[in-house]
Design brief:
With about 325 residues, this protein is α+β, with helices and mostly antiparallel strands. About 30% of the residues lie in helices and about 25% in strands. Helix 1 (about 15-20) runs antiparallel to helix 2 (about 25-45), helix 2 (about 25-45) packs antiparallel against helix 3 (about 65-80) and helix 4 (about 205-215) runs antiparallel to helix 7 (about 300-310). The structure holds 1,6-di-O-phosphono-alpha-D-fructofuranose. 1,6-di-O-phosphono-alpha-D-fructofuranose (AFP) binds near residues 114, 115, 196, 252 and 253.
């Protein structure tokens, strides 16, 4: 007989990590982030949608939820005892955490990516990138884990620690239980999720979008990286792109806490992630606010993007 509220087959996050023999400190960190997401999902459902009256590194007005979500997550990371370095989209510097020398991990996160979508009731997410050591400016290939929480009709958590990608669903007890191991089927065609403004696309990107549509791909774009990415990952087809734009050659999305974690997850699921020239995970970060163009999804589509950009720019 299973515990109340759980069917006998349900495996919760902590048990899953234990059974996969994930490092105890990393298990603790992932579970702390999962716990923090319970407070974030409650703040989204009931919180103040007003403006916090402050602005972040990019000069974007911070919504109360941005600030609240950042505070919730940072507190859990700080008191976890296993973190020594933090970078958040909502702060403009690298934060050193005093864990009495026991801090093993450097963490970069976007506490509430897509927060401007909450007041129109669209899905948003938390994105986290985890490195061993105290250097947060390593290439993404050095990550030891990456995860996101998607606050949609259901609240789901997707993570990788380098041995596959797993999805969990938050049940009515607010516990995450395993739903599936994610594998990306490189189906032809399907969906594409094009960020930015089409009139600012380069010839190569314009040719990519035309080719995808000729092959029958349908446009699916909400303006939230986490739900848009999650759709490609779980449907197992197509690609998300936020490309280089005329006047914005580096694109919009942030390397440390949007591109690196999503690229790690996508590669672990059998897909690919590129800045149009090289794999995202091989980019050496030069600054915490660095942005890169992004082409991510099925390997075939990402290779097509790189080929057309090499030919046409
Ligand atoms: P915010 O976190 O500022 O809402 O931006 C969300 C985001 O970084 C990412 O989630 C989306 O993919 C992208 O911006 C959407 O950008 P556009 O509004 O330019 O399409």
């Amino acid at each position: 007989m299973g515990e109340p509220g759980k069917t006998p087959m349900q495996i919760d996050l902590r048990r899953h990590l234990r059974e996969k023999e994930i490092d105890r400190d990393l298990t603790r960190l992932i579970c702390e982030i999962a716990d923090a997401s319970k407070y974030i999902v409650n703040s989204i459902r009931t919180g103040d949608l007003g403006v916090a009256g402050t602005s972040n590194l990019y000069g974007e007005e911070q919504l109360a939820l941005d600030v609240l979500s950042d505070r919730i997550l940072r507190k859990r990371l700080t008191y976890s005892g296993v973190v020594n370095t933090i970078v958040s989209e909502e702060t403009d510097e690298i934060i050193k955490v005093d864990s009495n020398g026991s801090g093993r991990f450097a963490v970069a996160y976007d506490p509430l990516d897509g927060s401007s979508l909450v007041d129109v009731n669209l899905a948003v997410g938390t994105i986290v990138s985890i490195f061993e050591g105290d250097d947060i400016m390593q290439p993404g290939r050095k990550q030891i884990a990456a995860l996101y929480v998607l606050y949609g009709p259901r609240t789901t958590l997707v993570y990788t620690s380098g041995d596959g990608v797993y999805e969990f669903n938050m049940n009515h007890l607010m516990e995450y239980t395993l739903t599936q191991k994610v594998s990306l089927l490189a189906e032809s065609g399907g969906i594409y999720s094009p960020g930015g403004q089409r009139n600012l696309y380069s010839k190569g990107v314009e040719a990519l979008v035309s080719k995808l549509e000729e092959e029958g791909s349908k446009l699916r774009y909400s303006g939230g990286l986490v739900p848009d990415f999650n759709q490609i990952l779980l449907k197992g087809k197509g690609m998300f792109l936020y490309p280089h734009l005329k006047g914005k050659p580096q694109g919009k999305l942030r390397l440390l806490y949007e591109l690196n974690p999503m690229a790690f997850i996508m590669e672990q699921a059998g897909g690919a992630a590129s800045n149009g020239k090289i794999p995202i995970l091989d980019v050496q970060p030069e600054s915490i606010d660095q942005t890169e163009p992004l082409f991510i999804g099925c390997r075939k589509e990402v290779e097509l993007a790189e080929r057309l950009i090499a030919e046409l720019g």
